[in-house]
């Protein structure tokens, strides 16, 4: 079987009715690697987490390749396939996925591996392009604005109105999340959206009754 025939089977015909040779394995794994690398770079570009998790991104590539190898093996031998199904049924993953987009990329990686392993890499390529298009479309058209958490400490709990007046001067959006009042003063946490964080902090810190003020990145979003 020539290279063109192998390429055709790897992209459109599938391996179920053909013998699994070394060339077939290399073609299958090669297609899975290329698509997995593509997923790697897309995740790196659109990642919205406060801290980019490179280990998770690398695992997407590895998962796609391993899945492709498993599907390829299952097709080659019915006895091996039954044993592998039994073995995989007892595997349990306890790592929590906090970001729904991470879960989507994980499923994308697994699906790409399954499709490449079955010998339909062309479908994996088309599906990956459509997934990328949807990600770009929804990320750009319906992107939510990230917020910051403003924490202010004052020596008097009667000065909250003045603090909020300064906040409204520099912020498009503000919402009080926590308020701690004591005899010694006031501690208030406000969720804000501002394009002038430095000016806001300068304004607050110049107030005689404000002891300290800080802005912390917040993972929540507003529409």
Description:
The protein is an alpha+beta fold. 58% of the residues lie in helices and 20% in strands. It has helices at residues 3-13, 22-46, 54-76, 78-88, 100-118, 121-141, 160-170, 197-205, and strands spanning 145-154, 171-182, 185-194, 210-222. A 4-stranded antiparallel beta sheet has the order 2-3-1-4. Strand 2 and strand 3 (185-194) form a beta hairpin. Helix 2 (22-46) runs parallel beside helix 6 (121-141) and helix 3 (54-76) packs parallel to helix 5. The chain starts with a helix and ends with a strand.
Number of helices: 8
Helix coverage percent: 55-70%
Series of secondary-structure elements, N-terminal to C-terminal: HHHHHHEHEEHE
| Spatial extent as radius of gyration | 26 Å
Structural class: alpha+beta
Q: Largest beta sheet, briefly?
A: 4 strands, antiparallel
Total E-strand runs: 4
Shape: rod-shaped
Mean pLDDT: 79
Portion of residues in beta strands equals: 15-25%
Cα end-to-end separation: 56 Å
Ranges with pLDDT <50 over ≥5 residues? none
Please state how the strands of the largest beta sheet are arranged side by side: 2-3-1-4
């Amino acid at each position: 079987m020539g290279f063109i025939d192998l390429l055709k089977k790897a992209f459109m015909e599938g391996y179920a009715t053909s013998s699994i040779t070394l060339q077939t394995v290399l073609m299958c794994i090669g297609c899975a690697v290329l698509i997995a690398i593509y997923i790697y770079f897309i995740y790196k570009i659109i990642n919205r987490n406060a801290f980019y998790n490179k280990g998770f991104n690398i695992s997407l590539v590895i998962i796609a390749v391993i899945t492709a190898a498993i599907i390829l093996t299952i097709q080659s031998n019915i006895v091996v396939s039954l044993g592998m199904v039994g073995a995989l049924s007892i595997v349990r993953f306890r790592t929590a996925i906090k970001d729904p987009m991470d879960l989507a990329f994980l499923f994308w990686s697994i699906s790409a591996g399954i499709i490449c392993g079955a010998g339909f890499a062309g479908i994996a390529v088309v599906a990956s392009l459509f997934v990328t298009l949807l990600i770009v479309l929804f990320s750009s058209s319906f992107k939510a604005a990230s917020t910051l958490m403003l924490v202010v400490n004052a020596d008097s709990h009667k000065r909250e109105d003045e603090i909020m007046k300064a906040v409204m001067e520099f912020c498009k959006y503000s919402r009080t999340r926590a308020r701690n009042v004591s005899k010694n003063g006031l501690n208030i946490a406000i969720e804000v959206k501002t394009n002038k964080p430095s000016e806001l902090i300068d304004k607050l810190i110049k107030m005689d009754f404000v002891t300290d003020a800080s802005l912390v990145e917040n993972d929540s979003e507003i529409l």
